[in-house]
Input
Amino acid sequence: MRKPSLRNTLPGSDDTLRAVLPNGVTVLARGNHHSPSVVFHGYLDTGALRDPQEKLGQADFTASMLTRGTRARSFHQFFDLLESSGASLGFSGNIHTTGFNGRALTEDLPLLLTLLRETCETPTFLVEYVEKMRAQLLTGLALRAQDTSDMASLTFDQLLFREHPYARPEDGYPETVARISRDDLAAYHADHYGPRGMVLVIVGDVEPARALDLVGAALGDWQNPHQSSPVVLPEFTPPAEETRKHVSVDGMVQSDIVMGGSGPTRKSADHLPVSLGNNVLGQFGMYGRIGEVVRERSGLAYYAYTRLNSGVGPGSWEVSAGVNPANVEKTIQLVKQEIAKYLNEPVDSEELSDSQANYIGRLPLALESNSGVASALLSLERYQLGLDYYREYAGQIRAVTPEMILEASRRYLDPQKLAIASAGPTG
Amino acid sequence: MGSDMLTCRLENGLQVQLKEIHSAPLISSWVWYRVGSRNERPGITGISHWVEHMQFKGTPNHPQGEMDRVISREGGTWNAFTYLDWTTFFETMPANKVELALNLEADRMVNSLFDPQEVTSERTVIISEREGNENEPLFRLGEALQRAAFTAHPYQHEVIGEMTDLRSMQRDDLFNYYRQHYNPANAVLAIAGDFESEAMLELVRKAFGPLTTGKRATPVVADETPPTAEQRVDVSGPGETTFIQVAYRAPRANHPDFFLLSVLDSLLTGPSGLNMFGGGGISNKTSRLYQRLVENQLAVGVHGGLSATIDPYLYDVTITAAPGRQVADILKAFDEEIDSLRQDTVTTAIIERAIKQARALFVYGAENITNQGFWLGYAEMFASYQWFETYLQRLAEVTPADVLRVAQEYLSSEKRVVGVYHPAAEGGSYA
Output
C-alpha cells in the first residue's frame, strides 16, 4: 500500500476539482478511496439575515421543514428511503446561509443527490408537519431558556452586536416562532431558495469528474427566476464602554459566563494573527492562559476557554466559563486581568512558537476524514481563500510575529469595553 | 483476526494490540485500564474519574502543563474518559511523533505525583463539573433512575460520583487507588495508524517494558438480584419540558443476546452509532417509537441507549414529551408499541434494513484513525476485539424469532424502572 505523506493528505488545486454549473451552483470534489463512502457539505445563499423582526426564526424553520415531505415523496417515504440506505441528509439555518450535510455509502450517492434536489426545490410545507415542527422548535427554545450556557451566549451577542442583525438568534424566540405561518414558510422558500450562490462539496470514494457529472444530473437544470439578490450587511460599531447583563435561570446549580469583544472577519489580514493570539490566550493545551488561571491555578471551573468566531461579517472573540454562582464575580475579574495582561505586551516568542507548531501540526488530523476535508473545502470557497490555501498555510502561520498579534488584537479587544454576560441563579 | 493486526503481551503483563492503517500520516495510541465506577464502593464513588483527572497533573519527568505542551506543539490531540468498567487515555499524533505519546503514557502509568495542592484544586474543578451536570434535567433523571435500578451493584452510581464523596475523599485515597489499578497487568495498549507493526512493537517495549508488573484489578462487584417488579421514579426541577426515561435490565455485552437487543433497539428507536469519534449518525424517523410517539404528537423526540458493559446494565429509552401532553398518555402509547413487539414477529426485511444501517455506520467510523484506535482497546474492556470484528456477521445471523424472544425476555415491565422529570412550570417543585 502506498505510504501517505503529509503533502498528499492536504488538498490543493491539483487534486481538487472546482467547477460552476451554468445555473450558478459551485461544485468542489476530491476523491478519497480508503473507505466506500462519501460525504457532501454545502450551503444555499439565504439565511436568517432575511428574517423579519417579528418572525425571527423563519429561515431556520424553513430549513427544518425541507425534509418533511416533498412533491415526489411523503415524509415517511423520504425517510424510509434515506434510512434504509444508512444515509443521512440534514439542513440547518445559519445567519447568512442555509447549510446542508449528507453522507452515504458510495453506491447511494446518486440517491442522496436526488433527495437533495427534491428537498431544496419542492418541499410541500404541509400544515400537519409545520405544526409538528413548531412543537419541536418551541420545545427546543424552552430548553434553551433553561440552558445557562446558551442563555449567556445569547445575551453576549445582544450586548456586543446591539442593533446589528448578528444580535438576533437564528432560531428566534417562542413568540416569533409562534407567529410564523405555513404560507410564510412557503413564500420564503419560493423567494429565496435557488441554485445561484449554492455551493456543494463532495469528498469520498468517487472520482471528482464523476461527482461533477452526478451533481450536474441532479441539480444542473434547477432554476428559480424569482430568487432574490443577496442581502447587504449593515455596518457594525463595537460598544464604546463595558456592558454587562445577568440573566436569571432559577433552580440551576452552575452559572455560565460569556465575555469578550469583537473579532476580525475571516478574510481580514488580522484573522491569522488574532487567531494565533486567541490560541495563546485561551486554547493551547488545556485552554491556554485563561485555562491556566481559572481552572488549573484557581480550581474555579471545569471549563474556561476562548473562542474566535470569524465569518463574512464582524466576528466575536469570547471567553466562556462555567462556574459556581458564588464565583461568577471572581472569575470575571480574573479573566479581565488576563485580557488586560494579554493586551499590555506581546506574547512571548516561545508561546507563539508553541501555537504556530500546534496550528501546522494539527492539519493532518483535521483533514483525515471525508467530513473534515469537505468542511475545509467549503470554508475555502466561502471565504475565497484559494484551493492551495492548506498547502501554503504553514508559511502564512510562520510569518506571524508577536508584534503583529498585539497590534491586531488591540483592534478588537479592550478590557474597558468588554461585553459581559452571565446566566444562572440569582442571589 | 485480520492480517494487519499484531497482538501480544509483554512480560510485565501489558496487553498490546497493534493495527496498521495507512490512510493518513497519523497514529492513535490508547491506554485502557480495567478500572471504572464498577470498582468503587460507597464512600469513594467518583474516585476513578478523579484519578483520571490527576493523571494530567504531572510526573517528575513531565511537570504539570508540560504534557499538554508536548502534545499540542506537535498538533496532536489527547484526552481521557472514565466509564463504568474502564478508564482510558489517548493521543492521536502525526505518525513520526508517536514515541512522545508512548513515553508520556508509560511515565504516568506509574509516576503521577498527586501533589496535595493539585488534589485540592482539582476537587473544586470536579465539583464544578458535577454542578454543570446537575444543570441538566436528563442528568438529574438519569442519576435517580440508575440509583433505583440497582440495589447493590456499583453501577447504581453515576461515574462522576456522589457530591458527599467528592467533598470528603483525601489525597491518599486517590493515590492508593492509583497504585492499585494503574499498572501494566491491568492495562491494554491499543495503537492504530500509519506504522510498521514490528517497529512499533520495539517502541512499545522500550517505553513500557521496564515497568514493573502489577495485579489485574479485582472489582468490588456485588451480586445484583434481578428486578421482579416495575419501579417508578419521579424527579422535579426547573424548566417547562417533561422527560420520561424507561430503563430495562440489559444483558452483558459478551452475552449472545446483546447483539439481538441491539437489533431490537434499532427497530424501536433507530440505528445507534458504535463510533465514539466521527462517523455521524443516521436519523430515526422511521423507527417504531418515533412513528408512534413523535408522529402522533405525543413527544418531540425519542432515542435509545444500549451500553456494552461487563455486567448486565441498562437499555434505556428517553422520551421528550410534547408540550401539554400527559405522561400517562405517552406511557400508554409506549407500552402498546412494546407489547406489539413482544407479540408479533417482525419481517426479515426489517432486520436486513437494520443490518445495512449498521454496516454503513461501521464504514463511516472507519474513516477516522482515532475511532479505529478506540475500538481496538474498547472491545477488550468487556469482551475482545473479535467482538467488534464479528459484530456485523453476528447481526446477519439474527432471525425474526430471535427478536421476538429477546423482546419477550428483556422488555417486560417487571424488569424496568420508569422515571419522569416533572418541570416546575407544570407543577413540579424543587429545592
